[in-house]
Amino acid sequence: MTSGLVAVVFSTMVFMNPIGMRMAFGTPLTLRMLVAATLGVGGVALLFVPEIDAARHGGRAALGIAVALGATVVATIGNLIAVRNHKVGLPTFPATAWGMFYGALSAR
To answer: Which one, of 19, 12, 16, lies nearest residue 38 by Cα?
Structure first.
């Protein structure tokens, strides 16, 4: 899968993060945010129109898009966890170190 498609998929985080914040913390969604996110994703998509068009013609691009979308969802969940950790007052560096430690253990 080309990097342009990955960029377009990951740019959808500007929608996923606010929606996740709304679902998890009740943060309101604003029209301004939705318009800005739409313009941002649209701009990134316009940069890679030829790659997006090539992906529509089949091949393994659909699998790549699904994997990239899954990674985007996981990254969004990580952002929401970071917001929660900040709200409860967890110090950033020790919490990150412990998270990396647990991640290294789980990769075994």
So the answer is: 12
